[in-house]
Amino acid sequence: MTDRFDAADLARAVQAGVLQPGQDRALLDFLQRQPQARPSFQLAHVAYYFGAMLIIAAMGWLLNEAWMRIGDAALLAIALLYMGALTLAGLILWRRGLQIPGGLLGAAAVSLTPLAAFAAQRLLGWWPLEAGLDYHDYYVYVRGGWLTMEVATLLVGLAMLRLLPFPFIVMPMALALWFMSMDLTEWVYGTPFEWAERCRVSLWFGLAVILASLLADGRSRRDFAFWGYFAGLLAFWGGLSLMDSDSELGKALYCLINLVLIGCAVALRRPLFMVFGALGVAGYLGHLVHRVFQDSLGFPLIVSLIGLGLIALGIAYQKRREGLTAAMRERLPEGLLRLLPALRR
Hints:
Layout: H1 7-15, H2 23-33, H3 43-62, H4 64-67, H5 72-95, H6 99-111, H7 113-124, H8 147-163, H9 170-189, H10 195-216, H11 225-241, H12 248-268, H13 271-292, H14 299-330, H15 334-339
Helix pairs in contact: 1-2, 3-6, 5-6, 5-7, 6-8, 6-9, 7-8, 8-9, 9-10, 9-11, 10-11, 11-13, 12-13, 13-14
């Protein structure tokens, strides 16, 4: 909390009569003694996250090359050992009030689940893919056989959230969901599958993840929905944007859908929707400008003006977001407000 309030803010509260003289100092001292439970842009927190990402990269990717030489049994044993050690260390830190580093270690443990599932399948003779595919190909190729690894990651992630209810643990689960949206294409259409089919599966799968995150949003003091939104938007917006459309009507519909995403950002107070929606609208405007000003010296000028317009839109939204959100929510049906807890925040 002290990253959002300082002594000057509390002094102004005393001047305004909100706090009694002396209460500002006592409140500031109390807040400074509390362990930081929310991530913020502080050097310690940057170090926490950077360290966690190094652990995830080292054990989930870099060391895999060395471990593969010692056999599937040793690979599974080492993966499980590291998962257990990271979980135990995370629990110890969590119980000591260090929730951010503890939760990050839990996320690192979850990120090792695909490696453990990979080794277990090979050891038990259940590996469904061709022999030439190794673990690092999981991050490169779309294959329906990866689904077991992705489902295992989701199950372990859910169990870890019960132990360490830290939102970043949803990140490896969101990554698994994103991969699943692509790997399901082979199950739905078989092989070979077309690019358009992959885009359609990604779009509908992403939409389902967004709706599931929307229903979960606002049901907890911690923001577990963010990474679900992120994975859903990646799959939905990515599939939508990569669809080929020779029709101007289809491109206009694409712009309209992105405007709806911007509206969702206002209603839900989720800037993530604004980012994806603004990118889509900017892409459509760039398409229109390219058609009108093709081979014209005015083309870069118009694109620059679009960029300035988006910045101005962001500034205007930042200044008026509370009023815009309130106005939009007043127009929503009461039944929808009751159904979606996120809209009551």
